[in-house]
Amino acid sequence: MKKISVYLALVLLLFRCSETDLIQPETTLLTTSTSTQSESLSLISANTLFVSTTGNDAGDGSAAKPWRTLRYAVTKVPASQGYTIQLSAGTFIETGLIEVPLGVNVIGAGIDQTILKAATSFYYYPASPAYAT
After folding, report:
1. Whole-prediction pTM value?
2. For 69-105, what is each residue's pLDDT tens digit?
3. Which of 49, 56, 54, 110 is nearest to 74 (CA)?
4. Rounded to an integer, what distance in angstroms lies between the CA atom of residue 62 and that of residue 50?
């Protein structure tokens, strides 16, 4: 038993890795044509709709004419078609339940920059168990 531990200690002492023995992952470059990149960028921008605190629900959801509320935006976006609703920075006061359609993404400006709040008319009052009008 002592003989095996001596051999093991000797092997560990003599065994050294050199820098050439290090394994590095292969890097592969993804190459795409510029027409493919521009098509994918237009597809992303075509499927992205915007909501801003300075917007108007009469707008069209574009970056130039964003909607005002998330509740209105989710009613205008079809389900399961890869749409994204992008919220600007700010505090959004929503007046009711927001049901985001299946397959629609909602993205904000950041956890401390985009804030969603319920309007006081939507608060729950336990004294009278119902939502206020």
Report:
1. 0.58
2. 999 999 999 998 889 999 999 999 888 888 999 999 9
3. 49
4. 6
